[in-house]
């Protein structure tokens, strides 16, 4: 039964991919200009040569490193600030305006300012942290607030240890909110990181290669790099889903 469901899921995924490839090809035929919209075959042909170029792997690895590093730091800081904001209303009132400012200000403004402070190789990391931090902070705070205070009072009344209360009540409540924040930040991280790479142009970066392809009007290469970004984002999303499911099962059986 499980094998049948897996095959059905794979067949469905292939069907969806074929549909979009046909739609892409129809758009190419309709536009009639490979400079604006190249054909899928020409893009994949360019990609097949791109992956054997000397700097391809370095560009991909550096971009992935920036995304992963920014996600780890943003989650760590977001969890700490969310917990502190929940415990201390005073600190919450101090932190909230900063989070609102980060959410409201244009990303480009932060990128321009960050280039004055940080090396171009690390500007994308800083910008991705700034964009993801309010998401994690807000979700963690919301998850902590969702805990029923009557359960906390009952646990205190029966002498349950504070550490156990946090693990069984607060952590269980925060987990769905934190998981949602991780998926949001993963997609946001790839978008913001590549955008910052385009503007800061570090030597090894997917964003830099996109910028170069735009300068030389190499549309096929631009689409090929965009396809690489989509594939990387999809692979990391699948990995994150499997990783979180395993953590959840391990936590439930513990």
Structure characterization notes:
- The protein has helices at 2-31, 40-50, 56-87, 89-104, 107-117, 123-145, 149-157, 162-200, 206-215, 219-253.
- It is mostly helical and 254 residues long.
Number of strands: 0
Radius of gyration: 22 Å
| Classification by helices and strands | mainly alpha
Number of alpha- plus pi-helical segments: 10
Oligomer: single chain
Mean pLDDT: 84
List the uncertain runs.
none
* Largest sheet entry: none
**Helix amount, in percent?**
over 70%
| Span between termini | 29 Å
Order of helices and strands: HHHHHHHHHH
Q: What does the overall shape look like?
A: globular
Proportion of strand residues? under 5%
Please write out the topology.
Blueprint: H1 2-31, H2 40-50, H3 56-87, H4 89-104, H5 107-117, H6 123-145, H7 149-157, H8 162-200, H9 206-215, H10 219-253
């Amino acid at each position: 039964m499980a094998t049948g469901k897996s095959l059905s899921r794979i067949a469905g995924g292939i069907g969806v991919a074929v549909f979009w490839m046909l739609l892409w090809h129809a758009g190419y035929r309709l536009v009639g200009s490979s400079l604006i919209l190249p054909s899928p075959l020409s893009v994949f042909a360019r990609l097949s040569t791109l992956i054997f170029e000397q700097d391809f792997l370095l560009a991909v690895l550096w971009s992935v490193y920036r995304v992963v590093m920014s996600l780890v730091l943003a989650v760590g800081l977001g969890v700490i600030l969310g917990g502190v904001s929940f415990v201390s209303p005073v600190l919450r009132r101090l932190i909230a305006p900063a989070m609102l400012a980060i959410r409201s200000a244009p990303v480009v403004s932060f990128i321009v300012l960050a280039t004055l402070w940080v090396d171009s190789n690390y500007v994308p990391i800083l910008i991705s942290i700034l964009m993801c931090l309010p998401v994690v902070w807000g979700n963690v705070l919301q998850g902590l607030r969702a805990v029923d205070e009557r359960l906390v009072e009952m646990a205190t009344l029966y002498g349950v240890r504070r550490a156990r209360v946090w693990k069984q009540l607060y952590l269980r409540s925060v987990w769905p909110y934190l998981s949602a924040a991780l998926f949001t930040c993963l997609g946001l991280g790839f978008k913001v990181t590549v955008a910052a790479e385009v503007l800061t142009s570090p030597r090894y970066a997917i964003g830099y290669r996109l910028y170069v392809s735009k300068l030389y009007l190499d549309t096929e290469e631009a689409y090929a790099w965009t396809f690489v970004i989509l594939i990387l984002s999809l692979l990391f999303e699948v990995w994150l889903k499997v990783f979180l499911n395993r953590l959840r099962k391990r936590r439930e059986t513990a």
